[in-house]
Design goal:
Helix content is about 35%, strand content about 25%. It has ten helices and ten strands.
C-alpha cells in the first residue's frame, strides 16, 4: 500500500543548525503515527516541514506518492492536510470571534454552506452553538484547543498534523481532548501524525511511532512494542522512565 504521506531522507537547516538530518517516515492511509523525543529532538520541525513551514535543504516529502516542493504548498494541499498547534492561546486570533475563526478557512477554500459546517464543527468538538460568538479570551484552554481542532476539521481534511495538542492543558482536560481526537479519527477515517514527548499519549493514540534525538530517528516501534518493553535503544528506555503517566490503561481508562 502506498503511504498517504511520507518523508525520505529529509534534511532541514536553520543557518548552520541542522534541525533534521536524513529523516524518513511513511504513514499509511487511516493510520495514527507518532513522533516522540525530548525537546529539541526535531519532531515538531518534521511536522512543520511537511506543512511547508520549515527550510528543507535535502530529501523530499511525498503525498500519495507525488513529491511536494521544498516549502511551497498550494490550496489543494491545505484542503487535504491541516495542522493543530501546541499553544491554543497563540493559535487563535484574540480579536476574532469563534464564528469568524471558523469562517476564515471556509472563505479561503471557497467552501459553501458555512452555517451548517460551523454548527456541525462546534457540535463535533463538544461545544455547541452557544460558543459561536465568544472571543478566545472568554474560553478556557481546553475550549480554545477544541476550537483549534474544529477550525482544522471544518474543511474536511484527510490528514491532521498534531503538534503536542494537549501539552498546554491540565491532565483531566488532556484526556478529554485526546479522546475527542481519537473519536474524530474513527468517525472520519483520518490519518494523523502526532508529536508528543509523552509516551503514554503516543501509545494511547498511535499504532506506530519513531523516536527522535538530535534531529535523527533512533528507533522505530509499534505502540505494542513500547508497552511490552521491546525496546533496543537506551535513549528510548530512558524516555520511557522519564515519561509520566506511561501506564496506558491507568491514564486513559
Amino acid at each position: 500500500m502506498t503511504a498517504t504521506i511520507a518523508a525520505e531522507n529529509l534534511t532541514v537547516a536553520y543557518d548552520d543548525f541542522l534541525a533534521l538530518d536524513n529523516v524518513s517516515i511513511d504513514v499509511a492511509p487511516g493510520e495514527s503515527f507518532g513522533l516522540v523525543g525530548e525537546s529539541g529532538s526535531g519532531k515538531s520541525t518534521l511536522l512543520r516541514a511537511i506543512a511547508g513551514l520549515a527550510p528543507v535543504i535535502g530529501g523530499k516529502i511525498l503525498l500519495d506518492g507525488k513529491t511536494l516542493g521544498a516549502q511551497y504548498r498550494d490550496k489543494a494541499f491545505y484542503r487535504r492536510v491541516q495542522m493543530v498547534f501546541q499553544d491554543p492561546y497563540g493559535s487563535l486570533h484574540p480579536r476574532q470571534t469563534v464564528d469568524r475563526l471558523l469562517q476564515e478557512p471556509l472563505a479561503i477554500h471557497g467552501v459553501e454552506d458555512a452555517e451548517h459546517r460551523i454548527l456541525r464543527a462546534l457540535d463535533e468538538v463538544g461545544l455547541g452553538s452557544s460558543f459561536r460568538f465568544r472571543y478566545s479570551h472568554q474560553l478556557s484552554g481546553g475550549q480554545r484547543q477544541r476550537i483549534a481542532i474544529a477550525r482544522a476539521l471544518i474543511i474536511e481534511p484527510q490528514i491532521m498534523l498534531l503538534d503536542e495538542p494537549t501539552s498546554a492543558l491540565d491532565a483531566s482536560v488532556q484526556a478529554e481532548v485526546l479522546n475527542l481526537l481519537e473519536q474524530v479519527r474513527r468517525d472520519r477515517r483520518l490519518t494523523y501524525i502526532m508529536v508528543s514527548h509523552d509516551l503514554g499519549v503516543v501509545t494511547h493514540m498511535c499504532e506506530r511511532l519513531v523516536v527522535m534525538k538530535s534531529g535523527k530517528v533512533v528507533e522505530r516501534l509499534s505502540s505494542g512494542d513500547l508497552v511490552a518493553g521491546r525496546i533496543s535503544e537506551s535513549y528510548t528506555k530512558n524516555l520511557m522512565i522519564a515519561s509520566k503517566g506511561f501506564v496506558r490503561k491507568a491514564a486513559f481508562a
